[in-house]
Amino acid sequence: xxxxxxxxVRNVSKIFGAGTEQxxxxxxxxxxxxAQNEFFTLLGPSGCGKTTLLRLIAGFEHPTQGSILLEGAxxxxxxxxxxxxxxxxxxxxxxxxxxxxxxxxxxxxxxGRPNDEVAETVHNMLNLVKMESLKDRRIDxxxxxxxxxxxxxxxxxxxxxxxLLDEPLSALDLKLRKEMQVELKRLQHETGxxxxxxxxxxxxxxxxxxxxxxxxxxxxxxxxxxxxxxNRPNNRFVADFIGDTNFISADVIDRQTNQVRVRLPxxxxxxxxxxxxxxxxxxxTLAIRPEQARIATAGDPVAMQGTLSDEIYIGTDTQYRIxxxxxxPFVVRVQNTDGETRQITPQSxxxxxxxxxxxxxxxx
Amino acid sequence: xxxxxxxxxxxFESLEAKAYQxxxxxxxxxxxxxxxxxxCAASGPLLIMLVFSFxxxxxxxxxxxxxSTEAWFQVAFYKDIFDExxxxxxxxxxxxxxxxxxxFLTTLVxxxxxxxTAYFIATRPVETRNIWLFLVTxxxxxxxxxxxxxxxxxxxxxxxxxxxxxxxxxIDQPLDMLFTDIAILLGMTYVYIPLMILPIYASMERLxxxxxxxxxxxxxxxxxxxxxxxxxxxxxGVIAGSILVFIPSLGAYVTPRVLxxxxxxxxxxxxxxxxxxxRNWPLGAALSLTLLVIVMVALMVYVRSVxxxxxxHGH
Lengths: 364, 315
Hints:
The structure holds 2 protein chains of 2 kinds. Chain A is of the alpha+beta class. Chain A has 2 domains: about 5-240, 3-Layer(aba) Sandwich (Rossmann fold), CATH 3.40.50; about 245-360, CATH 2.40.50.100. Helices cover about 25% and strands about 35% of the residues of chain A. Chain A has helices at about 50-60, 100-110, 115-130, 145-155, 175-190, 200-210, 225-230, 235-240; strands at about 5-15, 25-35, 40-45, 65-70, 75, 85-90, 160-165, 195-200, 210-215, 220-225, 245-255, 260-265, 270-275, 285-290, 295, 305-315, 315-325, 330-335, 350-355, 360. In chain A, helix 2 (about 100-110) packs across helix 3, helix 2 (about 100-110) runs parallel beside helix 4 and helix 3 (about 115-130) packs across helix 4. The longest helix of chain A is centred in the middle third of the chain and has 18 residues, at about 175-190. Chain B is built from 13 helices and 4 strands. In chain B, a hairpin with a 5-residue loop joins strand 1 (about 55) and strand 2. The termini of chain B are far apart. The model of chain B has no long low-confidence stretch (mean pLDDT about 85). In chain B, the strands form 2 sheets. Chain B has a two-stranded antiparallel ribbon. In chain B, strands 3-4 form a two-stranded antiparallel sheet. The longest helix of chain B is centred in the N-terminal third of the chain and has 52 residues, at about 1-55. Chain B has a single domain, classed as MetI-like fold (Orthogonal Bundle). The interface between A and B is medium-sized, with 29 and 20 residues.
């Protein structure tokens, strides 16, 4: 199966206030290729440049350097109204002086589509987002979740090649947000349009996306499928931003082909698969997910020893916080089976064992 | 026990009624100054005008206490002093027509110039907006008469514009700009344009510019965004601005007097004439009331049409 590129961002930089004293580098030499019909997510904390990248693709901003291609054609100099790209805005930006169906019809009318086609598309869109019964309402007469649906329908109606979504779920409450996550995935599937989704919510990114780009300080740090990003973060920021992670400093004490032996705090040792060239004597950071470690029972190979300082019951799991002599406690998460938890005496000495295959060595 | 209770509540009710009466009386007392001002400044003078318009003109100005509908007749008709043939008062009608026409044009030009200005100010960074607003209001610091004479200096035959144009060789003869309708239009637009800019700016400042972005995103060209999104959303400001410009324009006195040179009268000048040289106070009063009616009708038609359009948009 050949994958056609939808949006191709090539070495794009965006500097606000360039040449002045207060210049801000919002994007720093960013390159990314997004495939057609892909659900692609830009994930990062606020101020990381993800919204700027989205606005560059939409055409509200123009890159200081680099180029943006849509299906092979340069679009970075075009105004927004000449790009077959539509946006769902964070606050929806629905027109308050128009009804629900007038909002949805707007893009089609501006494209100069014939009236009967506009009416038909609006009807289909209303069905698609299940808003048929409220089509004549004013925008201030519908709820936030309904506004969200209208904003989606309005942006999808002109059948853009790419749909941009700027944190569209952030204003919704948790339950509605979960519903909309499923809904968005369904819409993307049904319409076959490339979705570029911006969020700071890692869970949203992991549940919905085909691929995720993690951004920080104007750079893309890692691009990959959700499970890749989660299981094999390639640097400390990504590991920290997505999910919970224990970071442990360790010393490389020996190196063989594709393997390094490291000394853990408390003098335990561990042999890990590592492709990178890491000579003995290097200090490295290990990333271990809480669910990838366990509390040792008799006979287990113990990697680290520590004192159990806290036990936190969170329904599906129990978290054990173990003081291993480092600044932060080491967290182990164990899934609760049969509704019972393993009782461990507080402040007792426990051993932690980790699966060497799941430990990541991070470049800082 | 029970009867005690009812008598108690009855006593309470009467107390409550007394308290209410006392409050009404106190409120009346408190609002007396405002009512006096309202009567002296608005209803009183209007009433006097109404009474005067139904009296007979005095020989040397003033009025004679004698009922007459002559003044109202004279507003629209002219009776020849010799053969008593009745004709329509062309002079009055043309002055009314000129007033309405010039006021409408003033409002239009003020809108066409004021809207972009308001847009410009509203899209500046917050820190510099006040400077621009300040610049818009500066002309108000100078007396209207002086500003009007300044315009006269600029557009008269030996004035700034003609001198420069002749100096540059663009024209040989000075352009006749002074004492024309155009001069009055120019003067009134200059005087009243801040009243258009400020309310439009107030609406524009509250405009959510993300809606503008959304419209651009949905294939609307700049012109379409203006017509379909910005204008409908700042309509309250446009309505307020138009009313604030149109009404004083209709009653303008100084500007047409100075820049119209006594040849191009507007209603304000016509009315003044009746109380001065014309020595026909009842006619002046009747003309004033006619102006009032024109303003009210124009306002009602305008607001009604704008509302209907708005309702059509809102669906």
